[in-house]
Amino acid sequence: MLIATDEAGRVVKKPTKPTIGRMLANLQRGNAHLVLERVDEGMEGSWYVQVLLRDDNTYQLEFRDGMAAEHYQTRTISQEKVQTAMLGWAANTADWKDSFMWNKIGSQFGADDAQQPG
Question: Do the Cβ atoms of 51 and 61 come closer than 8 Å?
Fold first, then answer.
């Protein structure tokens, strides 16, 4: 199941494309991050994509593929590219991350971080 959570505490189970788009468009100071998490029984690890609206109005996009060692990050000024990536990740499309150059940042996380969206 897909779960969307924002910094303001809004949690939406099985969010639709329009809901994800609205939550992303509503990012601002005090509600600056959005997490889409894939939660399924039998799926070990932590699977999510998240975005942070930074103070310089850029978007920091990250995703984790199951374990802390597989955590990646990029930045962009384009909310549209972030939305396309997040919707692609939610739909499990193969090319959702192709528009970005990703930095592997898994070494910044310990093994105890494996279950928590960062």
Answer: yes
Q: How confident is the model at residue 114 (pLDDT cuts 50, 70, 90)?
A: very low
SS3 72: strand
Residue 60's nearest CA partner among 33, 39, 40, 23 is 33
H or E stretch including 23? helix 17-25
DSSP letter assigned to residue 7: T
Nearest to 64 by CA among 84, 50, 79, 44: 50
* For the chain, counts of helices (H) and of strands (E): 2, 7
- pTM of the full predicted structure? 0.87
Contact 71/104 with Cβ under 8 angstroms? yes
Report residue 113 as tokens. Answer: 């971080």
